[in-house]
Amino acid sequence: MPLSREAIVEGLRGIVGPDAVVTDEKVLVESSVDNFRKLQNIFDVHTMPVPAAIALPADTAQVARVLTWADDNGVNIIPRTGATATEGGLESVVPDSVILDGSAMNEIVKVDPYNMQATCQCGVPLQALEDRAREHGLTTGHSPQSKPVAHMGGLVATRSIGQFSTLYGGIEDMVVGLEAVFPGGEVCRIKNVPRRAAGPDIRHIVIGNEGALCFITEVTVKLFPYFPENNVFLGWTLKDMGLGFEVLRDVMVNGYKPSVARVYDPGDAGIHFSHFAAPDDCVLLFMAEGAAGIATATADGIQAIVDQHPECTQVPSEYIETWFNDLCWDASKITAEDERIRQTRNVNRTTEISADWSSINEIYQAAKQRIIDEIPDITMMGGHSSHSYINGTNMYFNYFFNVVGVGPEEETEKYYLPIIGIICEETLKRGGSIVHHHGMGKARAPWVKDEYGSSYSMLETLKRSFDPNGVMNKGTIIPL
Amino acid sequence: MTALRIAVGFKVTPDYEALRPADWARAATGPSAHGEAVRYVRRVFNVFDEAALELALRLRDARTERGLETSLVAFSVAGREADPFLATLQALGYEGARVEPDADLDFAPATTAALVAAATRHLGGEVLLLGSRCGPGDTGLVPFLAAEALGRPSLPGVTAVEPAADRLRVTFSAGDQPLRATIAPPCVLAVGNALVSLLRVPTLKDRLATRDRVVTTLTPADLGVDVPAALSREPSALVGLETIDRSRAGVVVAGASPAEEARALYEEHLHARLERI
User: Fold this and answer.
1) Which residue in A114, A175, A233, A394 could disulfide with A320, CB within 3.0 to 4.6 Å?
2) What is the layout of strands, in order, in the sheet containing A21-22?
3) Is A379's CB within 8 Å of B43's CB?
4) SS3 of A235, please?
5) Is there a contact between B183 and B170 (Cβ–Cβ < 8 Å)?
6) Averaged over A12-32, what is the pLDDT?
7) pLDDT tens sequence across A421-472
C-alpha cells in the first residue's frame, strides 16, 4: 500500500532531519514542473501532481538512506540539483513523488592543478567551480548558457554541453570519475583515471541517466589552461544555410578546433545580429582560443577556409565578441524573460537535434517549413548549428509563438509538443538523433523507441537492472 | 467621435544591458568613446518608447471594440538601423516612417524635438506618444519641447491611456503623485513607467502580409528643419561623461547570538537612519 503524504514526510524527516524537508505548498507546486511547462509557474496555473516533499540530503550517506527507503516503500524519486531542466525531467507525473535535491551538497572537494582535474559535490554551481578554477589560471571548458545557475550533478545527469564544445567536448568528455547512489542505497565510485580499457566505460551508465537510474553525488572533471587574452573572434554574413553547414564541415574535416563554431539562419540571426546582418542574412561565426600559437593558427586556418567562399562577407570581430560576452543566462535574464512572456504571451522554445553532414540541412529545411505551415501563431522560426563534429553537427531550432485562444497551461499541448513532434519525425526519418544536449526528459520520451531502434533493449535492461522497482524519476527517458 | 490618428515617435538604442562594466568605463571617457563602446551592441527599442508603442496599440484595440476608427503611424529619427523595427511595427498595423538625420543628434534635445514635431505635422497624428526619456544622458526634454513646438498640451509620466467618449482618459504621474486626467486631443503624452512595457509580437503571417509595404523616408529638408542651425541654437552642449561611483562598503555585524546581532544591527546601523525618515 502506498505511503500517505504524511508518512512520506515523516520518513524523510527521519533520514535527513526536519529542517531539510520542504513542505511549503507553494514551493511544492512550483516544483511540480520544470522549464518544459514553465508557463505554469509564470502564470501560476498548475496541472501536475504536487510532490509530497523536497528532501535536501547533506551527504552521500543520507542520499543512500533515502534511496533505500524509497525503494522499500515504492516512492517515486525525482533527483535534481540546480532545477534548470528544460525537457520535463523534473516534472512530477505521478502523485506523491519526492524531489531529492542535492543543492545542499555544494562543496568543492578538491582542485588539483597538477593533475588538471577538480572534484566537487553534485550541488556545486558550475559558475562556482569555474571561478575556483580561474583562481589557478584554469577553466572547466564547460559553458552552457545556464552556467550561472546550473549545478554539476544536473549537468552530468543530462549530458550537458557548453558553448566551447568544439574544443573541449561535451560533459561526457570532461568527466573522469564520479560517485553515484543507486536504488536500494548502493554507493558506487568510479575512480579518476586518464583512460582505461577494463571493459565497458561504465561512466556512461551514469552520465545522461537523467535521474532514471541513480543519483549523482560527486563528479570529477578535467581542467584546462585558460588563455582569454588569446581569444580570436571571427564572423561573416552569408545568404545560404547550406553553405554555412559546408563551411562548418570544411573547418571540422580539416582538423581545426575552434571553441565556438556556429551558423545562424536568418530568423535566429535576426534576434542576435540585426544590427549588422540584413533580414535575409545567415551569420557564421567562430572563436579560436588556447595557447597563443594554437589560437592564431586556428583562426588563420578558418580564415583561409572561409576566404575560399566569396559569398561570405566578413564583419568586424567586435560584433562577435560583444555578442558572445552577453550570451549566458543569469537569474536576472530569466526573470526578464518570464515577465516578457507574462506581458506578451509570446513564448520562446528550443529543440536541439543532431545528424550527419548529409542530412542536417534537409532536416533543418523540412522541419522549419512544416512548422511554419502546420503550427498556428508562429512569430519566429529559425535556428542555428552550434556544436560540430567531424561527421556531423547539431541543429538548435529556436522558435517563438503567441499563445492564442488557450490558457497558458495548455501552451505545451497546443504548440510545444506538436512542434517537437515535427522536429523528431523529420530527424528520425533521416537517421539523426532527436536529442543533442538537453536530455530526453519526459518531453521526448514518447519517441525513445524510435530513437534507439534495436538498441532499445539495452536501455530497458539497464533500467530494469538498476531500478527494478521503478522508483527513479518515472516517465523520464522511458515513458510511463 | 471622429477618426483618430495616433503617432508614436520611437528611438532604437544600443542594448545597454549587454555592455560589460569595462564597456561602460570606456563609454564614460568622452563623447566619441561613448559611440565606440556601444557600436557593436545589438539594438533594441528604447524601453519607454516600446511601452508607448504598445499603449497606442491597446488604445487602438479599445477604440476598435467601440466601433471607432483609429490609424497608427510610428516614426523614428534614425538611420537604417531602425528598418527592422519599422518592419515589425508595420506587421502590427502601424504605418512606418523614418526621418534620416544628417547629423549626430545625441544630446541635442531641441533639434530632436523640432524634427519630431515637424514629422508629426507631416505624417499626421492628433495624439503624439513619446517615451519619457531615452538612454544614459538623455534630458527627458524632447516630449515637452515637441509639445511646445506643436502648440499642444502635454502630460508627463503617462502609464495608461483609455478611450473616454470623444476624449482620452490618461493615467500619469507628476512628481510622486499618480493622477488621472481626461484630455481632448490634440495632445502629447510622455510615457513613463507603464505597467504595460513590452510590445506584442507579430506572427510570421503578419510579417509576410506587410513585407512589401514601403517605409516613408523623410529628410530634415522635407520637414523644413535646418538641423545645423538648430544644433547651433542648442542651449547646452555635452562636454564629457563620467561614471557615478556606486561602490558600497560592507561591515560584518558581530554578536554572541542572533539576538545580539539583530540588536547591534538596529542600534549601530538602522536606528539613526530610521530616525531621519
Assistant:
1) A233
2) A21-22, A53-55, A98-101, A77-80
3) no
4) strand
5) yes
6) 98
7) 999 999 999 999 999 999 999 999 999 999 999 999 999 999 999 999 999 9
| Alpha-carbon gap: B104 to the closest alpha carbon of chain A (Å) | 18
What is the phi/psi pair of residue A463, to 5°?
-60, -45
Q: What are A112's strand-pairing partners?
A: A117
State the residue for C-alpha cell 584554469. A138
How high is the pLDDT of residue B235? 82
Parallel/antiparallel/unpaired status of strands A388-389 and A392-402: antiparallel
A248 grid coordinates: 562548418
How is residue B187 written as a grid cell?
495632445
Position B122: which residue type?
A: H
* Whether A476 contacts A158, CB under 8 Å: no
E strands along chain B, which residues? 4-9, 12-14, 43-45, 70-77, 95-99, 127-131, 154-158, 160-164, 167-174, 177-183, 187-191, 216-218
B203/A379 touch (CB, cutoff 8 Å), yes or no = yes
CA distance A330 to A328: 6
Quick: pLDDT tens for A338-395.
999 999 999 999 999 999 999 999 999 999 999 999 999 999 999 999 999 999 999 9
Residue A43 three-state SS: coil
The SS3 call for residue A363 is: helix
Q: Could you say which of A275, A344, A402 has the minimum Cβ distance to residue B198?
A: A344
| Interface confidence (ipTM) of the complex | 0.86
pTM: 0.91
B4, B62 contact by CB (below 8 A):
no
**Cα-based distances in Å from A145 to A3, A195, A258:** 39, 29, 18
For residue A35, give the DSSP letter: G
Question: Does residue B20 contact residue A325 with C-beta atoms inside 8 Å?
Answer: yes
What are the DSSP E strand ranges found in A374-437?
A: 378-385, 388-389, 392-402
Per the listing, cell 540584413 goes with A278
